[in-house]
Design brief:
single chain; alpha+beta; two-stranded parallel ribbon; two-stranded antiparallel sheet; 4 strands; about 35% helix
Length: about 160
């Protein structure tokens, strides 16, 4: 049976996966929806690459919400402002952004706090506009100044 024109040919799609899955890091899962490019033949070829195939529930677009949210955040906070020159550059940008996202960026679930504040740092005072005595705010540029992280440091005596 001929494949409809709107479906990507399996060899092309499979080649894209081969280029992404290089073996540098072990990939365990592929999560995909019910799009036509993910045929049973495609899934069989991907299983041969030692991937477990997880399909999202049929007609449940909210099942992709977490992935879509993360990809949107990466795009809005990083890739909309920077042009990666090659794959190595892109990997470096994403590595730096992920570290910033997980360690230095405020998260609404933490209130005004940041993740991994570390020990030895005082918590903010009840009035957040006053610095603790003997401390100063130190800034660090992330992604060549696209974002900034701030922390409290003890002042030198």
């Amino acid at each position: 049976m001929p494949r409809p024109l709107w479906q990507a040919p399996i060899p092309w799609t499979l080649q894209q996966f081969r280029e992404v899955i290089t073996g540098e890091q072990r990939q365990r899962f592929l999560i995909h929806d019910w799009d036509g490019i993910y045929s049973s033949e495609q899934d069989t070829a991907l299983k041969a690459m030692d991937l477990s195939i997880l399909k999202t529930p049929f007609q449940a677009p909210q099942a992709n919400a977490f992935c879509e949210r993360l990809i949107g955040t990466i795009r809005r906070e990083c890739l909309d402002f920077l042009i990666p020159l090659n794959e190595r550059h892109l990997r470096g940008l994403l590595k730096e952004w992920v570290a910033h996202y997980n360690r230095g960026r405020p998260h609404s679930s933490l209130g005004p706090g940041i993740p991994n504040l570390g020990s030895g740092h005082p918590r903010a005072q009840p009035c957040r506009y006053h610095l603790p005595v003997g401390h100063q705010v130190v800034g660090k540029a992330i992604l060549s100044g696209l974002h900034h992280e701030y922390r409290l440091e003890r002042r030198a005596a």
